[in-house]
Model the fold of this input.
Amino acid sequence: MAGRIPLGAYALPGRVADPRAIVGQAQAAQELGLQTLWLSERWGTKDLGVLAGAISQVTSTIRIASGITHFQARHPAILASLAMTAQALSGGRMIIGVGRSVDAMWAAVGLPKSTGASIVDHADIFRRLCRGEKVRYDGPAGTFPSLRLNDVPDQPVPALVLAGIGPKTLALAGGHFDGVLLHPFLTPDAVRRSVASVREAERQAGRPPGSVRVYATVVVACDMPPERELAVVGARAVTYYQIPGFGERLAAVNGWDPKPLARLRAHPRLVGVRGSADAVLTREELAEPASVLPAAWTRGAAAIGTARCCHDTFDRYREAGVDELVLHGSAPDQLGPLLRGSRKGS
Done:
């Protein structure tokens, strides 16, 4: 992939009944030369610690990233222990991606919501624990009288990446994190603005230029028939746009009129759905409501069509200033024609 932007990919995209497919997908990702394999954690069949451990034993070079987990979903010592155990098993290949999610989710499961202050303090607690330090803390992240990992492997602290959409989260990433993971369905122009926000926060924090790695997530459907393309791209779009508040945030970042969101949410398949639609509906079931979305909301913010069209889209994101693309929607073992073709054209 010489001359092109580095690529990573999500494994086990969407709903998964059998996580054992992770083994073949991880091996395919490494064989294809991907930089990073990302895990979209979902409670039930996609636990970060278990999947990272499995991947570490069937690969040797590809980085392993959570994209994403959440600080408050695990006790700080448990998250740090998971990270350092995975570092030891993988030879230091872990990246820990974290995010805010939405307040309604945390209220539903009885956990505190994320704030800017709690995110920054959680990151500091995580790094200190991973270095083997003793931590006493009472503040926005909680109360922890005495924390320490008794046994810490001789491995570096994993890079911390913050998932972000809005300016406040991008500023947190630029000032306090090692990287930022941009959300799917951002146009190249929206990504360019996001990169500028991260770089400005990086500068204001006195950090070296370019020290925060920017990852942009791009949903990919290469050389697929229309119905399959709609199931991959359209269904993935619906899972984000139909969430109240979240869809409006994506539309605002892209500079789009949010009126189509009302039509989407009024679709008979989505009426009464709470939370993420793909928790209760299959890709094929989500393809029907996806058809009411404007074409620009999918085709203008994803990589669709021939391999050449997809690579042209990748180039537009590279020109927007990102350091690495994270391919989503298509599993690594489905990306061979797209990526092997790019090698021949390099």
Notes: The longest strand covers residues 213-222.
